[in-house]
Amino acid sequence: MTDEAAPSRRDRVERVERIARRVGIGFAVLAIVASPWWGRTLLRHLDFFRVRRVEIDGARYVSPDEIVSRLRIDTTQSLFDDVGPLEKRVRQHPSVRDVRIERKLPGTLLVKITENLPVAFVQAASGLVVVDAAGRSLPVNPATADVDLPVLATRDTLTLRVLGQVREQSPALFARIGEVRRVPQGSSFYLLFRLTDSSNSLAHDVLAAADVTADRLSDIVPVEQDLTRRDKHATELDLRFRDQVIARLP
Fold first, then answer.
1. DSSP letter string over 44-82?
2. Residues 6 or more apart from 71 whose CB is under 8 A from it?
3. Cα end-to-end span (Å), the chain
4. pLDDT tens digits along 74-89
């Protein structure tokens, strides 16, 4: 009993010492970081705080390798170097709307990005181009990325704005939109949305005024639900009349 207990006590003592050392180091680092400018300058020269790992958070369509490449971090980069220039490089990527870089001791940079989300395919001479709500082309490869987007004949900024709103506010509804196009009406036009139902088996058209909003487009959802309860399917839903949703049945 005595021989077995002694190593156990030594293990506990060593464990407590290790924890104490880590806590001590942590307090020392916090004290230096909270100190004037010379504190961070001192930390930059310690090999212990060299950047050894980069983590990318928020990348869905942009490749994490592209973000790391834009950072251009070398073996001399310290965790306590100014991250402003790094954020500026990443922010210049066309798929990045915003970026924030955080530090994780002792040697990890956490890069949190917010993407410019793709909202449509636009037909071009070279084929289908992925664009965001502002009409900017995005370097998204449909062959490698999971992209299922509405198709537009032209880079229609009005329609793209509406699609951007719908994607943010009603993702489930956005996922059902297969095509959007302008339809001439006298000296003006209206928008025609081609939608599938929730099972992607049936499709119908939604007619909407040129100034339609995401909230107004969402008015079709309770109407569709009511038709489903009655075992009916509309071939067309018309939103062009104020505060009304007109369902046209086969």
1. HT-GGGB--EEEEES-SSS-HHHHHHHH---TT-BTTS-
2. 54, 86, 89, 90, 109, 111
3. 88
4. 888 888 889 999 999 9
**Token code pair at residue 243:** 């505060």
Among candidate residues 246, 250, 224, the one with its CA nearest the CA of residue 237: 246
CA distance 24 to 75: 27
**Whole-number Cα distances in Å, 185 to 51, 129, 191:** 60, 28, 10
Dig out the tokens for 154 from the structure. 């032209």
pTM, entire model: 0.74
User: What integer pLDDT is reported at residue 43 of this predicted model?
Assistant: 58
pLDDT tens digits, 109-125 = 999 999 999 999 998 88
Return the biggest CA–CA distance within the chain: 99
